[in-house]
Amino acid sequence: MGFLEVKDLTLGLKNTYLPLVEGVSFSLKKGQTLGIVGESGCGKSLTGLSLLRLFPPGITHYRGNVFIDGISLFEIPERELFKIRGKKIAIILQDPLTALNPVFTIEEQIEEVLKVHFSLSKKERKERVYQLLSEVGISEPKLRAKCYPHELSGGLRQRAMIAMALAGNPEVLIADEPTTALDPTLQVQIIELLKTLKEERGLILLFITHDLTLVKHLADRIAVFYAGEIVEIAPAEVLFENPLHPYTQTLVSVFKNDEFLTKAMPVSMLEKPKGCWYWERCLTPCKEGKEKHPELINFDSFHQVRCWNYV
After folding, report:
1. Does 180 lie in the same domain as 108?
2. Three-state secondary structure call for residue 6
3. Is the whole-model pTM more than 0.85?
């Protein structure tokens, strides 16, 4: 089928109600790409991991749900979730050198995914490994498959990570800053590869990044995160041409003018104010924003924003 729905996802620290991701909702259909952008520490990667029900130490799920083809990933038993991870939903992590196991070859690691999800002979698994490596643009796949992660370049390691994520034929693919450790030329190559794979396989793609340059060329829609919540979500072209939230306006201005984001520090996740969390950084602060936190409202049928200026 191919349908992902996230409803009111709220995550935070265990043993105390301290949300680090709050009230996140969106939905995607087969073949669509959502870009999630924002500064470091805004909850982007935590959101991505939570879609597989993977939580870093000390983090828990407060409320909300994630559905793939109507299946609730927060309500099914762990044994059923184990079958879904990699099969229906998979993730590409940002640092393949630490994400890949250093003591196993690339072939062994991809084969392990195939063992879990398919009934294939050893010969069939090996042929499938070579096919996957070739599909992600790795030349001499039989030779590269025998390599350990440290024996490959950064670009080849990332392609191997993508091959492993695709091994279970997932419907949803989460790419968590997959180009962070790569030089600009390799970044473009990986983005083009993801774009091609999405189109060929009809994937639902969630692309997490802090780089608007990359997301502009890949995403159908963009969700802007600030302090753990979505402050604006819109079609990519609309967001770049008509950003509504002051934070988004700043990001787009920085992107268009090739500048650096320098005004103040992000709000502390531990000491969020009672009003708008962006109020102290806002270039056009309003009275309502000092006292009351805005909801995410519909500017039109395709564009949502969290700002008192549009209420």
Report:
1. yes
2. strand
3. yes
Q: Which residues contact 108 (CB under 8 A, 6 or more apart)?
A: none
* Residue range 289-296: mean pLDDT, rounded: 95
Give me the residue label for tokens 């060329």.
Answer: 217
User: For residue 284, with 0-12 CB atoms within 10 Å meaning exposed, 13-18 middle and 19 or more buried, which class applies?
Assistant: exposed
CA dist 269 → 65, 278, 280, 306 (Å): 22, 12, 14, 18
Residue 163 has pLDDT above 90, yes or no: yes
Beta-ladder partners of 26: 6
CA 175 to the chain's CA centroid: 5
CB 34 within 8 A of CB 207: yes
Residue 291: how many other CB atoms lie within 10 Å: 11
Q: Which CATH number characterizes residue 21's domain? A: 3.40.50.300
Q: What's the sign of the alpha-carbon dihedral 21, 24, 27, 31? A: negative
Task: Give the pairing of strands 33-37 and 204-209.
Answer: parallel
Q: Once rounded to an integer, what is the mean pLDDT over residues 188-208? A: 94
Q: Say yes or no: 17 and 122 in one domain.
A: yes
The radius of gyration computed from the CA coordinates of the chain, to the nearest angstrom, equals 20
Residue at which a domain ends, from 219, 235, 268? 219
How far are the Cα atoms of 19, 90, 196, 198, 278 from residue 201, in angstroms, in the given order?
A: 35, 14, 8, 5, 39
- Number of domains into which the chain is organized: 2
- Of 61, 83, 55, nearest to 74 by C-alpha is 61
Co-location of 168 and 29 in the same domain: yes
Do residues 280 and 201 share a domain? no
Residue 264 clears pLDDT 70, i.e. is over it: no
Q: How far apart are CA 250 and CA 257, in angstroms?
A: 10
Cα–Cα dist 107/160, whole Å = 9
